[in-house]
Here is the input.
Amino acid sequence: MKSFLRIPVVLGMSLAIFSCKKNDDTSPSTTNNVPDVYKKIYGATSITSDGTYITIKTTGTPDHKSVYYANGNSLYENFSGTTFGGYTFAKNPNSIATQNYTFKIPINPTVSSTHPSTPLGAIGVALNGVPFYNQYAGPNQSLTNEMASFDQYWGHPQQSGGYHYHVEPTYLTSVKASKSSLLGFLLDGYPVYGPEENGASVTNAMLDVYHGHTHATTEYPNGIYHYHITNTDPYINGSGFYGMPGTVTQ
Ligand SMILES: [Zn+2]
Ligand SMILES: [Zn+2]
Here is the structure.
């Protein structure tokens, strides 16, 4: 498992300087009261806390190559062949455009008695700042018809250029982290982990209807409810948020 690069920005304190493996690495600006776990969201432009909510700002643009970047962008890379689900890749007409997301998620997640449905659009944020979307392409519309348009890292942009993941973000699970790593958070503040645990694939049968379960994790040694991404429907979230969701604006 690769460790995440974290450079705390603390004015007036002398800190060890960690070496960057890439010169273009940037770290989000953070305030001092942001718990370390949120600093793993390396793609954020800023992460702040008011003690109740963590506010995460991101552009939503992926840090990996994509066929959906404009030809000429340094992250543009052509793609053809097979994508998620064994579909032959078929590009959709959209191009990645910078967004302006503000995710406000509770620091101390609490269980919701109503388990609100996830909205269309962003339902959470991945470590690279790209939003997670739910398992639908539109109101009561299955994702199946969209899967062929998932790019080399299994994301794609919608009509206004907002790039997003409905399924496993493979750049995170294969390059930046691992298949058993923390990969992000949903709006209710509960963490999202990858499709493997203790060396084995996580199946939907191991999860509740919201697509999670509770036990200790690396980041939460005392145990926490967490979602797992699986490779079968509903992929990230099931029948709504487990907890009381925060908000996202754009
Ligand atoms: Zn989509
Ligand atoms: Zn688990």
